Amino acid sequence: xxxxxxxxxxxxxxxxxxxxxxxxxxxxxxxxxxxxxxxxxxxxxxxxxxxxxxxxxxxxxxxxxxxxxxxxxxxxxxxxxxxxxxxxxxxxxxxxxxxxxxxxxxxxxxxxxxxxxxxxxxxxxxxxxxxxxxxxxxxxxxxxxxxxxxxxxxxxxxxxxxxxxxxxxxxxxxxxxxxxxxxxxxxxxxxxxxxxxxxxxxxxxxxxxxxxxxxxxxxxxxxxxxxxxxxxxxxxxxxxxxxxxxxxxxxxxxxxxxxxxxxxxxxxxxxxxxxxxxxxxxxxxxxxxxxxxxxxxxxxxxxxxxxxxxxxxxxxxxxxxxxxxxxxxxxxxxxxxxxxxxxxxxxxxxxxxxxxxxxxxxxxxxxxxxxxxxxxxxxxxxxxxxxxxxxxxxxxxxxxxxxxxxxxxxxxxxxxxxxxxxxxxxxxxxxxxxxxxxxxxxxxxxxxxxxxxxxxxxxxxxxxxxxxxxxxxxxxxxxxxxxxxxxxxxxxxxxxxxxxxxxxxxxxxxxxxxxxxxxxxxxxxxxxxxxxxxxxxxxxxxxxxxxxxxxxxxxxxxxxxxxxxxxxxxxxxxxxxxxxxxxxxxxxxxxxxxxxxxxxxxxxxxxxxxxxxxxxxxxxxxxxxxxxxxxxxxxxxxxxxxxxxxxxxxxxxxxxxxxxxxxxxxxxxxxxxxxxxxxxxxxxxxxxx
Length: 689
Ligand code: ADP
Ligand code: ZN
Fold this sequence. Notes:
By secondary structure, the protein is of the alpha/beta class.
């Protein structure tokens, strides 16, 4: 071997994960000038197919002499650009992505890209931003915890300092009990030890109030971290976090990957919230990943909620998680009183689309007369649910999806809430040509339009995805309501999340029934959570709160629990029994495998082929693991069988053991990849997708 050859042999090669739905890694050579600069977690720009992509180095670089004999060094492509050492994904975040890639059966390249979106890489930090991002001291607000808060704080802190292998605590505190103040005091202790803090929240758009509360509580600047943040901001904040200049992050689910230095505490607010499950592109559950990250760092993870998930409650019961309780509201107003309004019995307000009882209207008028505020919860956007022909009963459906179209009167459209398809409101029935088309059901838009007819003096603000199109708009709406510029805030799910408006003394749920009918095994639990959270918006200040829940099913067991006529424990114990009998989480594990195709027959037959191949895997697994319970269910059509013109068919795998579930999924993926089919895998699926 000549001298030149030995130099070439000693040059580096690296394995790179690219952000594509591909499980394998690719080998590239490192140009001489970059040798020694790369390590695991470094980002690199590489030629890939006909384009250039940013990927991540997944192993320490090797010399060319270490290339497997099957690879010809002359054929390797070279990386074209590389990030600096300071820019690389921190080890704990890298390992978290690797864990998630295995557990959720998602490509590592896509997870790394979710943790560290490539668009922000390679950008130069701007001078202005760098100045903004030095840690500012913020004038500190003094907090005096009440006795219950103090006890919870000490319990959490003791658990943090304890010797458990995995430090997870549930902070189970009723709405308005002051969980946030406990988070802040705990965060201060962790910061004083020179460690970092992460606060995860379900929805970043709703956190401007929380953000400033946190900053003034701990007395230093806090970064906001979410997937929609501008690339420059991500780059600069990332740099400030990696070097420890900024130590606290509040963020939505992707913030579980935030590159916080020496992370010592993870707070997951509203841990039960399903938005922690990321359902598009790469699938993971941010609460569950925060527990994995916390364990790897020996950091405390606090799961805060007024309505903890059954999964978390079960872990507490098993003794795997510790728990602390805040049983009373901080403010003197106490818990709100809840009343059921039976829509089948009560006299209805005439001349409006929405179901509103005269009784409810009277209470609303009284509240307004006292100068107090009202929140109205209606879980449907638009003007009406759907348009139905009075003669033949035909309902307008989306041409691309198996779902009815929603009437939006202001834009004079029928709109699909799945694919966005919009068409003009027809003048006659497309099936029988009759001219009487009735809008059925009410939405936030119709209620907003109709309320002034019955409450002429009240100013109304609407909070839903149609009205709130930007973060600025959202903040303006919330500020206006807080400042008393409006008396009524009307909205969808967005209302339920964490708002603290002390002057709201009345919450009205227009129709609880829609929550009971959702065909999902978590539906009863979810309905109770939503109703408790919405109710929790009432009476958070000194004034007592009242909640009116309108329904056609006044004897629903969920309402019995909400009213306090039945204990939450007994209701949830029954839910647990049911899930245990059916091997649903938290007892068994679930994974959904989905085939999509524009051809329905093809979707079904592919699912069948995969199911058949999995049955062989199943019998092998059952031979070696006699106690294993494994079921392969389906093919069955997705809840939304057709979306955006594509048919969706599913297999559902239920399994008592994580390892066997992973093996089954892997076998399915291998089968699909041999056949060159795209298989979508969702481990621990939420909702119906
Ligand atoms: P939760 O997060 O449990 O729903 P919050 O933390 O938002 O409750 O607290 C509810 C209200 O009570 C807030 O307005 C908060 O500022 C106030 N509060 C809670 N604890 C304290 C405290 N120790 N001192 C002063 N105000 C408090
Ligand atoms: Zn559609």
